[in-house]
Amino acid sequence: MNVKNKLNGMLPYFAWLVALLGVAGSLFFSEVMLLPPCVLCWYQRIALYPLVFVIGAGIIMRDHRMKYYALPLCIAGLIIAIYHNLLYYGFIPESITPCAEGVPCNAVQIEWLGFITIPLMGLGAFVFIAACLILYKQEEQ
């Protein structure tokens, strides 16, 4: 088995690990740090949390079609994450935001190193998972 095939075989594991870290991170922020999620964060959670089980089941069952089950959830989360970041960084006006109640979607809760925010972490997770799933090639059986 060459390096390219080995890396290809690891892509679902990388996607699963990032999804798992995303779930753990979001629960840590809301339950331990007591940072309430905004509406868009909740929608991203709805797309992210099942990915742990869908990708995990695909790995366990060695179902190479798993990416076709996981990609729609991932793309939905990615679209929401892009919108959330555009709203957070001021490219979209607040007047068209779904965050009418509770925490504003552009509220600064965390800003590590001056630029790492919760919306940016969500976007990064969905981009990474989508890239792993798209690049994953079905192995010959």
Model description:
Helices cover 66% and strands 0% of the residues. By secondary structure, it is mostly helical. The chain has a single domain (3-94, 101-135), classed as DsbB-like (Bromodomain-like), CATH 1.20.1550. Helix 1 (3-32) packs antiparallel against helix 2 (39-60). The model has no long low-confidence stretch (mean pLDDT 89).
Topology diagram in text:
Elements: H1 3-32, H2 39-60, H3 66-88, H4 118-135
Helix pairs in contact: 1-2, 1-4, 2-3, 3-4
CATH architecture type: Up-down Bundle
Number of helices: 4
Mean pLDDT: 89
Which spans have pLDDT < 50 for at least 5 consecutive residues? Answer: none
Percent in helix: 55-70%
Note the overall shape.
elongated
Class of secondary structure makeup? mainly alpha
Largest sheet: none
User: What number of structural domains do the residues give?
Assistant: 1
CATH third-level topology: Bromodomain-like
Please, what is the CATH homologous superfamily? Answer: DsbB-like
The total count of strands amounts to: 0
CATH class term: Mainly Alpha
The proportion of strand residues reads under 5%
The radius of gyration over CA amounts to 16 Å
